[in-house]
Amino acid sequence: MGELGATMMIYPPGWTTLPVAIFSLTDRGNIADGAALTIVLVAMTLLLMMKLERIAKRLGQK
């Protein structure tokens, strides 16, 4: 079982995670909206990784 399968099994009713929303959109043939959400997910991940790298560098210099 992959990450998406595990997420789909445990997310609570009334909530939809971003990966599940992307899967649902692309599964229904709505590729453009799925791609847009994918870009949002990648951008958020990239920004978080950049922030964590800055923090790690700052802590390493002390």
Automatic annotation (TrEMBL):
Keywords, sorted A to Z? Cell inner membrane, Cell membrane, Membrane, Transmembrane, Transmembrane helix, Transport
Cellular localization per UniProt: Cell inner membrane
The principal location of this protein is: membrane
Q: What InterPro entries does the entry give? A: MetI-like_sf (IPR035906)
Spell out where the chain crosses the membrane.
Answer: 34-52
Q: Does the keyword Cell inner membrane apply?
A: yes
Per its UniProt entry, which superkingdom is the organism in?
Bacteria
* Cellular compartments per GO CC: plasma membrane
Provide the membrane topology annotation.
Multi-pass membrane protein
Q: What is this protein called?
A: 2-aminoethylphosphonate ABC transporter permease protein 2
- Supply the source organism's classification: Bacteria, Pseudomonadati, Pseudomonadota, Gammaproteobacteria, Enterobacterales
